[in-house]
Structure formats: structure tokens, C-alpha cells
């Protein structure tokens, strides 16, 4: 209904009451004008909400598909040092996952302007699978781009799974107070059988397959299951040792403690051949790579991920993990 229609309605109402008093006429006029104002306000708010919705939808699509209207991806970067950061645990999700690190490695190596790749690692370790996948990709890219060396710069800590990745680099630089090493594997959990006996709680576990209840925390641990788990850990440990020995080569001053799971300061790591010297990303780019310009290729969390986490997607994933089996090998 247009404003003219409301004007006609007003005139008709006024014309229909020619004998009424002035106060009645004024009342009718106020009623009609109030109705017109309300309809106009409703239309304005409707337009506002529609435009807002379209704007949000466009922004969400832009963030989801990572559109870049500036054309920066099409520009050729000059001679530079490529940087990729691995911060936190090496897990299937987060900045330390293979799904995040490997695409960053590929972009860094493929860029014609990058002359070397520097991994800045600050990690206590994590999944041997994720670390192994990253190492395999580093080795593949080093063969594909033999002129581009890979360096690791250790921040606070580069232990276990973090060092697993670092061992694939051409050189490792640390701070004298960094924590380095912990070449070992663990599988931890809890047993509640004694507590259950005291409380009078009976565990009722039914399985199809005699070993399906392997490492169930509410059942007694059998010698057979313990031996099987230990053999698996030893196997993964040997894989870890092989990567370190291959990566460090003759620089490694191996002792009985080297692969015991102990960790050392950065200064001691250099003495043991676990690292090559002291340095930061900046000094490595300037003094080793000879390319002071540093370009960060680290994949960072985008808007869709933040929105999903805000509305509980990460909580749901965490709940699934909590309810599922927790005993698994960890490089930590």
C-alpha cells in the first residue's frame, strides 16, 4: 500500500464524518497519521534488515572462499626467506596439524621468490602420525626443490614430536635456554579397578574379539596387552630414532641418553649435535639465507573456523574426543 493510498483513506474517513466535532476530526487525523507513520517505519526496517542480511551473506561467502580482491596472490614476491610457524601441540587439528602445515610448505617452496624455508617451532610434541606426515612432505619437497634449504629455529621448546619434525631440516638453530630433545614415545592412561572394588562397582564389558577391550581403564591390565602396547611403542620409537639419525647424520654425538626421552637446554643440544647453533628467524634470514625480507606462509585460522568455534562446533568435537578412546601413542 502506497502513501497516496493512506492519504485517500484518510480523506474518506474524514469525509464520512462531516457532522462530527473538531475533537473527533482531530482524533481521526491522529489515528490515520499514526497508521501511516507505522507503515513507513515497518517498510524502512524491512529494507534495513534485508540489506543487513545480504551484507552478512556476502561477507560470509567472501571469508569462506578466501577471496582476495587485491590480487596479492597474483603478484610475484621478490627474493625472500619463507617462514612457517608451528606453535603448540602436533595434533590432527590446530596449527601443528599436517593439514595446515603441508599446504603452507608447498606454497613456500613453490614461490619463485623464496630462497629458503624457515620453520619456527615452539611445540612440546604430539601425534607421531601428524609429525611423520609433515616430515615426509619436507623430504619430498627438498628433493623437488634441491636449491632451497630448510632451517628450523627453535623458540621456547622443540621436544618429541616437535623435534621429530626439526630433524628433517638441513640445520637447527636454538636459543641457549630453549628446551630440545625428548626423543621418545609414551602412551598414558588410568586404571580404576582398585577404586571400583572399594566402591563395590562391577565392570560389565562385553566384546566380540578377545582383545577388543585392549587397555580398557575399568578392567585389569593383562600382561599380554601390556607387552603388545610396549612392542608398538618400541616400533614407533625406532621410527623416531631413524628420522633423527638420518637427519642429523655425523653431526649427532650419540650417547646412551640421546634417545632415552630426556631433554636438554639449547646450549647442551648444540654440544650433543641435536642442534647446529644459536639464532633467531631474523638472524637466520640475514646471516644464513642472506635474504632479510621474511614472508610468512603460515596458514592462520579464518573467519569460518572462528564462527564455528564460537557457536560450539569445537565444544562438540571436544566432547566426542572425551567420550572416545584416549590411549594412543604420543611423541611427548
Automatic annotation (TrEMBL):
Gene3D superfamilies: 2-enoyl-CoA Hydratase, Chain A, domain 1
Transmembrane segments: 47-65
Species: Massilia rubra
Protein name: S49 family peptidase
Domain of life (superkingdom): Bacteria
Lineage, uppermost ranks: Bacteria, Pseudomonadati, Pseudomonadota, Betaproteobacteria, Burkholderiales
Family: Belongs to the peptidase S49 family.
Record-annotated Peptidase S49 domain positions: 147-288
InterPro entries named in the record: ClpP/crotonase-like_dom_sf, Peptidase_S49, S49_SppA_C
Pfam families in UniProt: Peptidase_S49 (PF01343)
UniProt entry keywords in alphabetical sequence: Hydrolase, Membrane, Protease, Serine protease, Transmembrane, Transmembrane helix
